[in-house]
Amino acid sequence: LVRADTCAARGGLPARPPAAAMELSTYKANARAYKAQVAARAAGVALAVVEVEVPAGGPEEAADEASPANKLPALKTAEGKVITVSNDAARHVCAQAPGCALYDAADAEGAAAIDEWCEFFAAKLDAPLRAWKLALRGRGECSEDDAKAAEEAFDAHLATLETRLAARTFLAADGDEFTLADVVGYCTLMELFALVYDKARQGKYGAVTRWFKTTRAHPDVKAVCGEGRLAKKAAKVGGAAKAPGGGGGGGAKPNKPKKDPKPAQKKKQPKKEGNQDGLTVTKEEDFGEWFSELVTKAEFLDYGPTGLRVSGCYILRPWAYEIWEAIRDFLDAEFKKRDVKNAYFPIFVTEKALNAEEDHVEGFAAEVAWVTRSGKSELDQPLAVRPTSETIMYPCYANWVRSHRDLPLKLNQWNNVVRWEFKHPTPFIRSREFLWQEGHTAYATEAEADVEALAYLELYRRTYEELCAVPVIKGVKSEKEKFAGAKYTTTVEGYIPFVGRGIQGATSHCLGQNFSKMFGIEFEDEKTKEKCYAWQNSFGLTTRTIGVMLMMHSDNKGAVLPPRVAPTQVVVIPIPFKDHQREQLVAKADEIAAQLKAAGVRVTVDARDNYTPGWKYNFYELKGVPLRLELGPKDMDKESVMTVRRDTGAKVPIAWKDLSGVPAMLETMQQEMLDSARRMMEASKVVVTKWEDFVPALDQKKFCMTPWCEDPESEEEVKVRSAAESDGGAAKTLCIPYDQPPMPEGTKCFITGKPAKRWVLWGRSY
To answer: In this structure, are residues 694 and 732 in contact, taking their beta carbons and an 8 Å threshold?
Structure first.
């Protein structure tokens, strides 16, 4: 970035670089000009910046004779055109670098989303609040009524941003990519934030504060805006200065000059104890940021090196993968008890095969990733990366099934799939690539298919409740929410009380004969000798289980893992006192670990001498190890260890001779974690029989059991009305529970007033 008017004038600086193709005229510290400057830096485009001297009246009154258009900032293009609308100037700069990551006009959908937010800032937070902002700076007049209206509008627009950013890092695209929308937003807000974004607002609009600080720290933003009056004021967000003249009333006076402060005395910093790499955000403050910190700092996953990341794709670290292995091993053994065989099918599917089942492909169309090139050559036909494997496997089933003797055919594969989600990716919960198992079975009769669909659903319930200690509700999806192309879809639904959102845990689909007719999966009936179509099921469970488990159990210290899936169930920590008895303590810790390992406990000893015991305690609490055994000199004297439970923090001494009771202690923890989670879930469920009580219950982070007529149009009505009546988002059906409470005669549907058929669970969901 070239400051053409000052480089040559400053002593000791390099000679003036070659002239840039574009020239930006601006006064110093002009936030509007920063937009084009950041764009130039991000796009790698040469831009000469000419600073115009500001008259005594201030930049707002400067006619700026030196400006090409009598207005600042002004961008003079290579063709001689002058652009004075700052957002347009930034877009033009980006256009000089095709494929610019900030803004690519060739990507019509992405550009439109960015434009929408750029217009939002221009129309809502720039020009309309200008008079109020000038008054706050003591450079203009603003009546009290106008100031109050402006401040109310400011808060209303911040609320809009808070909703948008609640589960996103950035504004546009999928929320995971830094774009021109964020640059425009930051530059628009930086002065207002410096003036009125006090601590109260920072707490109220936590997601906005996080976004502002994240954007401010972006290298291109920091390089352009990192110095000067505006940047120094905006840098106080996170500890913002109080607005001049109070909270934003009219006619604010200029700030009085401050006396030189006394030299600050250095405060003696307290000695840090424990692990300083722990969580910095609580679940209550910002659930999304807390979860993001949890999964990375506790070493469940990694996003990869900056610059090499693919949005929505994550590295599963060993700590997470071992949990997935525990889940996989349990299910794999149970599948084999039901004669399900493992197989593997290709990751690619032809366009023709994918389009064979219209309803099915329509349900996945927006999520399919396509391979269109090999090296520099275009493929003869594009290949889809599997979003699921029905269209890959079922043509093979058609070749393999000829007679009733070939049925049932039960295959499962453990693999990865890609679904190019356009919603905000969330680690483990919603990602573009994930690991799962997908089972695909074929039967001679409908009755067999129905029985088996529920059998696999029960295995999923057991996975969540018996392994992950997460309570779930078994049910069937509504017609609107069922799997594309299925006869019906069964599900286990979880609920995260801390955010008031349901989450689909796993599904088992009865496909009927829809797919067998499409792909020609026929067999000769044993009795009639007629050709019949097979009845089919499909069922799947993903690494989402890990995310649901972490959200449900973990706390502000870190993960809390159920013992049955924890990679390490027990950690033994010897605590020598000034190296007193160190060798004896470590030897005894190893002996205890060997005894527990022989009893089937997954145990480790941490005898490292370069970390303090306090650091180790915090580290293993962050990782979620269920049980800690502390062994110090006094414990040696008493021939005991101190046990510390991760879930409750309870400390209980146990004699060495009673260590055989540790496995039972772990089982008690497992059950109590499930019981605790079930109590939280049940406390979040309410019965609602009339619409007036529905949205208020959602806003209290509840999910609702209601009588419903099962009219598909009413389901859409609930979604639309719940979104319109609350900022919390739309509600949808989670499932129609198999465990149905009694339905009193004459019960009406809570939304239509028609006779109700069944009870249904509604809620906001991931």
So the answer is: no
Lookup result for tokens 């099918």:
345
The answer to whether the beta carbons of residues 557 and 278 sit under 8 Å apart is: yes
Residue 267 has what DSSP assignment? P
CA 84 to chain centre: 38
From the list 33, 171, 173, the residue with the least C-alpha distance to 90 is 33
The pLDDT tens digits of the residues spanning 522-579 come to 999 988 889 999 999 999 999 999 999 999 999 999 999 999 999 999 999 999 987 6
Q: How many CB atoms lie within 10 A of CB 417?
A: 20
Nearest to 605 by CA among 624, 636, 626, 629: 629
User: How much is the pLDDT for 140?
Assistant: 67
HEC string of 514-557? HHHHHHCCEEECCCCCCEEECEEEEEEEECHHHHHHHHHHCECC
Hey, which residues does 403 pair with through a beta bridge? 524
Tokens of 377: 């050559």
Half-sphere exposure of 634 (CA within 13 A, CB side): 4
- Alpha carbon distance 653, 630 (integer Å): 9
- Whether the link from the prior residue into 128 is cis, omega within 30° of 0, is no
Give the pLDDT of residue 61: 46
Strand pairing report for 703-708 and 685-687:
parallel
Cβ-based burial of 746 (10 A; exposed 0-12, middle 13-18, buried ≥19): exposed
- In whole angstroms, what separates CA 139 from the centre of its chain? 43
The answer to whether 688 and 747 are in contact (CB under 8 A) is no
**Contact call for residues 79 and 34 (beta carbons, < 8 A):** no
| Mean pLDDT, rounded, of the chain | 86
Q: Which two tokens stand for residue 96?
A: 């000089």
**What DSSP character marks residue 702?**
-
Q: Are 632 and 611 in contact (CB under 8 A)?
A: no
β-bridge pairing 409-418 and 341-342? parallel
Gap between the Cα atoms of 330 and 546, Å rounded: 14
**Tokens read off for 663:** 């496995």
What's the rounded Cα separation, in Å, for the pair 11 and 757?
84
Beta strands per DSSP E along 240-346: 301-302, 315-316, 341-342
Which pLDDT does position 138 carry in this prediction? 67
Q: Measured between alpha carbons, how far apart are the two ends of the chain, in Å? A: 43
Place of tokens 């060997």: 594
Q: Where are the beta strands (DSSP E) in 423-500?
A: 433-443, 473-476, 488-496
> Is pLDDT above 70 for 171?
yes
Contact 638/432 with Cβ under 8 angstroms?
A: no
Beta strands in 327-376 (DSSP E): 341-342, 348-350, 369-374
Contact residues for 298 (Cβ-Cβ < 8 A; gap 6+): 319, 558, 559, 622, 623, 624
Element (DSSP H or E) covering residue 674: helix 662-683
Collapsed DSSP state (helix, strand, coil) of residue 349: strand
Residue 14 has pLDDT above 90, yes or no: no
Looking at residue 515, what is its pLDDT?
A: 93
Tens-digit pLDDT profile for residues 93-129: 999 988 888 898 888 778 888 988 998 898 888 877 8
Residue length, the chain? 766
